[in-house]
Write a structure and sequence with these properties.
Blueprint (H helix, E strand, L loop, with lengths): L1 E9 L20 H20 L3 H12 L8 E7 L7 E4 L10 H6 L4 E5 L6 E5 L8 E8 L1 H17 L13 E7 L15 H20 L20 E6 L7 H13 E4 L2 E4 L10 H11 L1 E3 L12 E3 L4 E5 L9 E8 L2 E9 L11 E7 L2 E8 L6 H18 L3 E7 L1
Parallel strand pairs: 11-17
Antiparallel strand pairs: 1-6, 1-7, 2-6, 3-5, 4-5, 8-15, 8-18, 9-10, 12-13, 13-16, 14-15, 16-17
Helix pairs in contact: 1-2, 1-4, 1-5, 4-5
Length: about 400
């Protein structure tokens, strides 16, 4: 059996919880959560080798990480060196209620509860419990060589392409590796030279893909023109962008993403960013007006394709699919930290929006104790997967036009 130990540190706040979501002091980086993330990244890395053969992929995944019928061949342990924090404060105005920045607070939306207290007129701000930046953890992985190779490749992808916890796709829970002990099978977990960081990312993505490919004894065989049924890390259906700018903290790095994604703030709204250019600003008002009529038609509202549900907090309404509640965003934001330099990253994927999706959206709106669903028609002119993949392609081109650097991959 081989063992690898990593010492990691949070770059951005980590919002994570276990069985008791109000008390994370004894939870740390939970093994079940970590194992689930490793499984997700294994599927993303393996997708180019197995294609749409989901049955084979699931069988291989369960053979490594375990299932209800078989034990995992990988042993995981974690430890934490820090205690969690929580933000609680009373503010006199919405400007004073900003915790990190306008952009970061928007991206961390569900991790912050901001509401006006009627009796006092103040704004109360309460965050989920979280581990702040520079919190330190240890990850211990033990297993036989073949399974360990795949697990280490998945862990590298999790750290350098993904994040952990609540709002992980919007910049929360980013990590850096401080030290590693054991055989990493050619993967480099620590980059010390900022000038060679793009090369570092390219080389290690290829190594991670090759380590997983050894398991299947095959080469990538995905048709570049095809649309995967699930998220795959391939050179044709995913792309990693960075913006190498001198940012001295993680907030400034996420602000850079926010400026591209949200645009500029006018009053209490953002306008002009990639996401906001997909918005129908009359849509939220239509929710209020359609409460009695029960149907809204909009050819401009496209934000649901960037992730569901969409919450319209002012109107106490949530937009979701008719047959489902959630769909994770295919835009994943994060921050790298190299020798005190903070670099924003955006990873985008192209895949089917949802399997067997009938194109039906609804808004669930609550007025007092009465909860009602309002039928939504977003765009009758195109099938929903065509709308979705056009948005992802537009996102790819928009990032390139906005001086973001493509480090690896493409969207075709």
């Amino acid at each position: 059996m081989n063992e690898i130990t990593l010492e990691v540190e949070t770059v951005t706040p980590l919002f994570i919880a276990g069985a008791n979501q109000r008390n994370i002091e004894n939870e740390g980086l939970r093994v079940p959560s970590l194992r689930g993330l490793l499984r997700w990244w294994f599927r993303a890395l393996a997708g180019g080798y197995v294609g749409d053969d989901i049955t084979s992929l699931k069988k291989t995944e369960n053979g490594i990480f375990g299932s209800t019928n078989s034990k995992s061949k990988i042993s995981l342990r974690t430890s934490c060196e820090n205690l969690p924090s929580q933000i609680t404060k009373e503010c006199r105005s919405w400007d004073e209620a900003i915790v990190w920045s306008d952009y970061v607070d928007y991206l961390f939306f569900s991790c912050l509860d901001k509401r006006r207290v009627r009796r006092s007129g103040t704004i109360r701000v309460v965050s989920r419990p979280y581990y702040p930046e520079k919190s330190q953890f240890r990850i211990f992985i033990c297993g036989s060589e073949n399974e360990l190779k795949v697990t280490i490749a998945s862990l590298w992808a999790l750290i350098y392409l993904g994040s952990v916890g609540f709002r992980a796709r919007r910049g929360c829970g980013c990590f850096k590796v401080k030290d590693v002990k054991g055989n990493t099978f050619g993967l480099n977990f620590i980059c010390k030279n900022l000038n060679k960081f793009e090369e570092f990312l390219k080389n290690n993505i290829e190594i991670a893909l090759n380590l997983v490919g050894e398991l299947f004894k095959s080469k990538h065989h995905i048709n570049p023109a095809s649309i995967p049924k699930y998220t795959m890390l391939t050179p044709y259906n995913s792309a990693l962008f960075i913006k190498k700018i001198n940012r001295k903290n993680w907030i400034s790095a996420l602000n850079e993403i926010g400026r591209w994604y949200l645009g500029q703030k006018r009053g209490r709204k953002f306008v002009g960013g990639f996401r906001m250019n997909l918005a129908d600003y009359d849509f939220s008002h239509a929710i209020r007006d359609a409460y009695q009529e029960g149907h809204i038609i909009s050819d401009r509202e496209k934000r649901p394709y960037l992730g569901l549900p969409v919450t319209y907090a002012t109107y106490r309404a949530t937009l979701k699919g008719k047959e489902f509640d959630r769909r994770g965003s295919q835009l994943m934001f994060g921050v790298y930290e190299i020798n005190g330099n903070f670099i924003p990253r955006i990873l985008i994927f192209k895949s089917t929006f949802l399997q067997d999706f009938t194109g039906n959206f609804v808004v669930e709106k609550k007025v007092k104790r009465d909860k009602r669903e309002i039928k939504i028609t977003l765009d009758a002119h195109l099938p929903d997967n065509n709308i979705y993949n056009k948005i992802i392609k537009d996102c790819y081109e928009n990032l390139k036009a906005s001086n973001w650097q493509v480090v690896w991959g493409s969207i075709r």
